[in-house]
């Protein structure tokens, strides 16, 4: 690791903290408006190994909120763009880019043989989001999950709590039901918003599409990254669930 890159971070967490982060492996599932910012924050904090998982390409509608989305990157795979960007930040960073959709069928391919210290769930798909949390719990892996950041305008409304203690967030409500059905009863830390969702816009063909804005999803991503760093370093910034 080039410690000069992280000199200002060392002033804050010390050389032992940097060593701990450098030796840690974090997997980030979903590289959208939340996940793209979370994974970059981890790289800039000094995490030494990152596993990034996403199946999608950049769409023009991603430009308003996703870190890798530019007019010049439309149509390119998010994993490729993100891996390249992360290596520019820290050439010593180890990045495993997995261009696939997480599901129970792909879980073994992602997890087997990798010593993962923490997982960030920034998946949008409800079914596979529940599957990722279930798989992580069953494997004894630490995880923090992002709840809904769409249809929100207040970035100051995010909180961290056990999923069983959340309120207002419609996605958290659905996830509680899914996790109970899967037999998951343990406390799962989540980042969620207490802001009531705004009216859902209607896209083409009558399909409901959530609205988004540039300054809300990134905040959720930064909180996810902060939570992971807090737990890896035992800083106790975030209280136990």
Automatic annotation (TrEMBL):
<dbReference type="InterPro" id="IPR000594">
    <property type="entry name" value="ThiF_NAD_FAD-bd"/>
</dbReference>
<dbReference type="GO" id="GO:0061504">
    <property type="term" value="P:cyclic threonylcarbamoyladenosine biosynthetic process"/>
</dbReference>
<dbReference type="InterPro" id="IPR045886">
    <property type="entry name" value="ThiF/MoeB/HesA"/>
</dbReference>
<dbReference type="InterPro" id="IPR035985">
    <property type="entry name" value="Ubiquitin-activating_enz"/>
</dbReference>
<dbReference type="GO" id="GO:0008641">
    <property type="term" value="F:ubiquitin-like modifier activating enzyme activity"/>
</dbReference>
<dbReference type="GO" id="GO:0061503">
    <property type="term" value="F:tRNA threonylcarbamoyladenosine dehydratase"/>
</dbReference>
<protein>
    <submittedName>
        <fullName>tRNA A37 threonylcarbamoyladenosine dehydratase</fullName>
    </submittedName>
</protein>
<dbReference type="Pfam" id="PF00899">
    <property type="entry name" value="ThiF"/>
</dbReference>
<feature type="domain" description="THIF-type NAD/FAD binding fold">
    <location>
        <begin position="12"/>
        <end position="232"/>
    </location>
</feature>
